[in-house]
Amino acid sequence: MMDQILFYFFGGLAVLSAVLVVTSRSAIYSAIFLITTLLATAGLYLTLRAEFLFAVQIILYVGGIMVLFAFVIMLVNLDVALHQAQFNRQRWVATLLGLVLGAQLLLAFLLGHRDGANRDLLNLPSVAVTQLEPNTQLIGDVLFNKYVIPFEIASILLLVALVGAVVMGKKRI
């Protein structure tokens, strides 16, 4: 029961803050709401017993990506961007796509809660939480035994990209 309450709390918080990311006029407030969305998503992973995804969400997205967004917000001249003309001529397309997405969401919700033949559309087996294996340990075993070479190659590529970003961002005297 408590898992379900926490799931709906984090889900509602994620949806609300995601809407505020899009509708906020200030880039700083949008970044703060994006952090809230990412943290709520991490909470959803935790309620679903995906501890590894929870940790990756916190470390990688909230920690890393939001630092990059903060640097972009600080480096971009926001006053110039606010005084430029806004081009909102595609509002009708956004409204139409929003209505289509809302109809799909409503249809999925109704089909998922209806009794009868449409109840298990995906035919996924249900497993008790006590029968699940520790996923973080299995991910670590596979990552560092079977996929150690691709993991190290990805690490080197990320390091090269980081050094390249520092060199490109450095001011020349």
Protein architecture, described:
The chain is mostly helical. The chain has two domains: 1-79, Four Helix Bundle (Hemerythrin (Met), subunit A) (Up-down Bundle); 130-173. Helices cover 75% and strands 0% of the residues. The protein is built from seven helices and no strands. It has helices at residues 2-23, 27-47, 51-75, 78-83, 91-113, 135-145, 148-169. Helix 1 (2-23) runs antiparallel to helix 2 and helix 2 (27-47) packs antiparallel against helix 3 (51-75).
Q: How much beta, percentage-wise?
A: under 5%
Mean pLDDT equals 81
Biggest β-sheet strands, sense, barrel = none
Structural class: mainly alpha
Could you give a short description of this structure?
With 173 residues, the protein is mostly helical. The protein has helices spanning 2-23, 27-47, 51-75, 78-83, 91-113, 135-145, 148-169.
Keywords:
173 residues, mainly alpha, Four Helix Bundle (Hemerythrin (Met), subunit A), 75% helix
Explain the layout of strands and helices.
Layout: H1 2-23, H2 27-47, H3 51-75, H4 78-83, H5 91-113, H6 135-145, H7 148-169
Helix pairs in contact: 1-2, 2-3
